[in-house]
Specification:
Oligomer: single chain
Number of strands: 11
Helix content: 40-55%
Strand order of the largest sheet: 4-3-2-1-5
Low-confidence stretches: none
Radius of gyration: 37 Å
Largest sheet: 5 strands, antiparallel
């Protein structure tokens, strides 16, 4: 045991010195870089692996002292060198993994990406780094990695062919989460067939709750390939148009004033009706076949608010037009009846 005294002492002293230097450097790095963003993530990434570096440096110094003083057999010294090589590979792998994970998180926060896409990016980066580190470690231990790479290539191709639809939905989900054409809570119409609020955007499918209170599950591939109408982008405010037809004998200026006055008077009474932009009425589309066609334009807070707003405004406008003596034209259809014997038409 006495022959290991000096190598052990050298190991302890070297490791403690490196640990002290590590503490100082990490403190300075945090002070210079500020919050954990960009280069500031480097301090967080090397915090844990740097402890392993300190042990590795201590072992290396102790092994060198033992080799110079011939206090360890050559076989033991070679085993320690192999152990140091393994420790270096592991520490570098952990450091690169932590650094890439932190950088992915920082980039996701800057671009306001969702938690799912951030988690997937971190998992992919961590998995790739650890696979590369494992292959380097196996090569350092003298294990042939060529057959392993060949098997991984063939196996990966087979899995990709077998899971083609699943992978298509997966990458489509990544596209939806990164590009954000739809978001959870938005009211959307997908391919003119599904319309409702987005409940969840998963890796395989998107769930939409329709107005009938039923949830429709759509594969992400179908969503990504379809034309999407998002009623909550760029904002939830929605322009609402209500068509009002009146008799040709009505005064257009009076009708326009009635429509605007009734809408303005309902601003504080009808939930969801917005004061800005101000309501307006126009003789558009204009001259109908039997009537003057006005279009009342107002804005509602969200898509769902339009139903109650239309209901209340139509009642108010109908009562006001009746009070002002303005008629709403009604198309009358005639019916001609003929008897089976052909005695002539009978009209009604």
């Amino acid at each position: 045991m006495r022959q290991l005294a000096w190598p052990t002492f050298a190991f302890v002293v070297a490791a403690l010195l490196v640990l002290l230097l590590r503490t100082i450097l990490l403190s300075l790095l945090r002070r210079w870089t500020g919050p954990p963003d960009g280069w500031g993530s480097l301090a967080q990434a090397i915090r844990l692996p740097s402890i392993l570096w300190s042990v590795v440096v201590g072992l290396w110094v102790g092994n060198e002292v033992a080799g110079q003083t011939d206090r360890l057999p050559l076989r033991v010294s070679q085993q320690i060198s192999s152990l140091l090589e393994v420790a270096v590979i592991l520490s570098v792998t952990i450091t690169v993994s932590n650094l890439l994970t932190t950088l992915v998180q920082s980039a996701s926060e800057r671009r306001s990406l969702g938690r799912p896409i951030t988690g997937l990016g971190q998992s992919v980066a961590r998995g790739v780094v650890f696979i590369v580190g494992l292959l380097v470690l196996l090569d350092a231990l003298g294990i042939q990695i060529t057959p392993i790479l060949t098997a991984l290539g063939v196996g990966g191709l087979a899995v990709a062919l077998a899971l083609q639809d699943t992978l298509s939905n997966l990458f489509a989900g990544v596209h939806l989460l990164a590009d954000k054409p739809i978001r959870v809570g938005d009211y959307v119409k997908v391919a003119d067939t599904v319309e409702g609020h987005v409940v969840d955007i998963g890796w395989r499918s998107t769930r939409v709750r329709m107005l009938q209170n039923v949830v429709v599950t759509i594969p992400n591939k179908r969503v990504a390939e379809s034309m999407i109408t998002n009623y909550d982008m760029p904002e939830s405010r929605l322009a609402l148009t209500i068509r009002v037809a009146v008799d040709y004998g009505a005064d257009p200026d009076l009708v326009q004033r009635i429509l605007v006055e009734e809408t303005t008077g309902a601003l504080n009474e009808v939930p969801g009706l917005l004061a800005e932009p101000e309501p307006s009425a126009r003789l558009i589309p204009g001259f109908g076949e039997f009537s003057l066609d006005f279009t009342l334009i107002c804005h509602v807070k969200s898509f769902n608010d339009q139903f109650l707003v239309q209901h209340e405004l139509r009642k108010r406008i109908l009562r006001r037009l009746g009070a002002e003596g303005i008629r709403i034209p009604v198309q009358v259809r005639g019916t001609e009846l003929r008897s089976a014997g052909g005695d002539g038409p009978a009209r009604s």
